[in-house]
Inverse folding.
């Protein structure tokens, strides 16, 4: 499904743990069809309660952040959101006028 | 109250340690807000032809001075200017002194002007990505950014978006731009004369102005001029503050209010890193108290119980 009439929509979810069925703490959307424009601060309500709900709604998981050994001496340092999951949907340009997430 | 200045109390300071943010609504009086807008070069919308030109005019003709970083904040602004007067309000003086000491250094300032949609017809505008100002900064000492809102900011004006509790995360400026929305994010919707004091590490970004008015926000970053230890009004710190409160099997007494404040989680913390955030807050509070033995909810004492 990669012909010239299909485009990728990307959903990034940040979850509370490494488990897909834990709640969403952050998110981002990018729409390759150009039909829906998303930006920082555009919504305060997560598109899904957890990562599993995104799968149920048809998103394909394409990447999950690995669990990384803590560097000695830096065990308590916090930085970037830790549990990042990338999802995609391939959509036909003809069908892309409606938003495909449940925002 | 000391020397006519109103310093922060311990609960406010704990709030700053925990969340990295203190907001004070309408603390700058209306006459000073008007004076500031007049001095910085606010003009009616009809007199502005385009954003770049207006910025150029404001930068070249406004009363906001061009300053070198590293000078004393007290020397930065001409006497009787609006900014000087704001910085010398007893409440503002006391807050700054509580956070960065009596003689903080001026780092930089900037007047953020956000224009309404009519100036961008035909082009897609977007809000500013989340970022942490400056660069990676793992100090325990901290800078403060005072954000001043000289007029009312309504929701559609796209006031500053910020994430409480993000200040202790060590990240690299724009690297967090991928995060469009985070649970618990806040937006500045506020009355005129509001001040927001931010720890330098707070994740934030400007919103999109969808109103029919200009939005102004003036920011001053200041560096501490001394070791930031007990600079606030500590007279309310009782003996019980230095004692542990029960954990897990706690009964109904929530314990000392400062401990409650320090240990309050943000809704966006991950399950495991929320505990690391508590540890880092205790470390920060130890630094502010100058007391290496302070603990809250036993987070550090447990892992420090090591024997040679």
């Amino acid at each position: 499904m990669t012909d010239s009439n299909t485009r990728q929509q990307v959903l990034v979810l940040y979850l509370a743990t490494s488990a897909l069925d834990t709640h969403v703490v952050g998110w981002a959307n990018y729409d390759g069809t150009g039909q829906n424009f998303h930006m920082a601060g555009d919504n305060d309500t997560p598109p899904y309660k957890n990562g599993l709900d995104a799968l149920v709604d048809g998103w394909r998981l394409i990447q999950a952040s690995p669990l990384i050994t803590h560097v000695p001496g830096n065990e308590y340092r916090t930085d970037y959101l830790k549990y990042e999951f990338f999802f995609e949907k391939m959509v036909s340009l003809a069908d892309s006028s409606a938003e495909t997430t449940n925002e | 109250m000391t020397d006519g200045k109103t310093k922060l109390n311990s609960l406010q300071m704990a709030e700053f340690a925990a969340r990295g943010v203190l907001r004070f609504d309408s603390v700058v009086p209306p006459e000073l807000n008007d004076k500031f807008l007049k001095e910085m070069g606010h003009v009616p919308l009809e007199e502005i032809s385009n954003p770049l030109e207006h910025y150029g005019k404001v930068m070249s003709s406004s009363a906001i001075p061009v300053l070198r970083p590293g000078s004393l904040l007290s020397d930065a602004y001409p006497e009787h200017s609006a900014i000087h007067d704001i910085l010398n309000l007893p409440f503002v003086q006391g807050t700054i002194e509580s956070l960065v000491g009596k003689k903080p250094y001026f780092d930089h300032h900037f007047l953020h002007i956000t224009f309404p949609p009519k100036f961008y017809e035909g082009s897609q505008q977007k809000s500013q990505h989340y970022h942490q100002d400056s660069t990676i900064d793992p100090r325990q000492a901290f800078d403060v950014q005072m954000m001043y809102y000289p007029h009312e900011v309504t929701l559609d004006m796209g006031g500053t978006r910020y994430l409480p509790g993000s200040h202790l995360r060590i990240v690299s400026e724009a690297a967090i731009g991928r995060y469009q929305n985070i649970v618990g994010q806040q937006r500045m919707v506020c009355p005129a004369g509001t001040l927001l004091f931010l720890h330098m590490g707070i994740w934030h970004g400007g919103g999109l102005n969808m109103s029919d008015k200009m939005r102004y926000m003036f920011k001053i970053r200041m560096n501490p001029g001394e070791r930031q230890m007990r600079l606030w009004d500590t007279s309310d710190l009782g003996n019980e503050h230095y004692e542990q409160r029960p954990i897990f099997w706690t009964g109904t007494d929530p314990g000392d209010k400062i401990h409650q404040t320090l240990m309050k989680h943000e809704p966006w913390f991950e399950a495991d890193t929320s505990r690391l955030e508590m540890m880092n807050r205790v470390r920060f509070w130890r630094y502010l108290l100058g007391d290496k033995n302070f603990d809250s909810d036993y987070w550090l004492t447990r892992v420090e119980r090591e024997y040679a």
Summary: Strands of chain A lie at 6-15, 24-31, 60-64, 84-92. Chain A touches chain B at residues 12, 14-17, 22, 24-29, 37-44, 46, 76-83 (CB under 8 Å). The mean pLDDT of chain A is 91. Residues 51-56 of chain A form the longest helix (6 residues).
